[in-house]
Amino acid sequence: MSAFEQVYQLSEQLYQLVLQPLAKDEREERIEKITSLLEKREQLLPKVQPPFTSSEKELFQQILTWNDVITAKFTELKAQIQQDMIQTKKSKKTSQQYVNPYQNVSTSDGMFYDKRK
Q1: Burial 14-52 (b: 16+ CB within 10 A, else e)
Q2: Does the model's pTM come out above 0.90?
Q3: What DSSP character marks residue 115?
Q4: CA 24 from chain center: how many Å?
């Protein structure tokens, strides 16, 4: 199998992987699989050299189409992760305020300083 065909197969696997619905508890595994496939594909890309046959050109167009979808799904995944991080920070802050409600109370409350002499 040529390097071009291997790149095509890896791109197809990536495409199928990102199209599957993603649960929060499966996210780490999915990211690891995606990273593995991307690394394999990245190693094969330098081995793909022109001239290309007409069938390889068609496969290349399919890879480009898949890459657009893959990139869009990566953007969605990044947004989900960012949203989860924000939510985690909020819940952490809320739970900390519940544990120690007087942590952020200013000590100068109720005091008045007269600067006149």
Answers
A1: bbeebeeebeeeeeeeeeeebeebeebbeebeeebeeee
A2: no
A3: -
A4: 12
pLDDT digits (tens, 9 = 90+) for 13-39: 999 999 998 888 888 999 999 999 999
- Collect contacts of 110-114 with beta carbons under 8 A, ≥24 apart: none
What is the Cα–Cα distance from 110 to 117, expressed in whole angstroms? 21
Length in residues, the chain: 117
DSSP 19-73: HS---GGGHHHHHHHHHHHHHHHHHHGGG--S---HHHHHHHHHHHHHHHHHHHH
Q: Please calculate the CA angle 55-33-70 and round it to the nearest 5 degrees.
A: 50
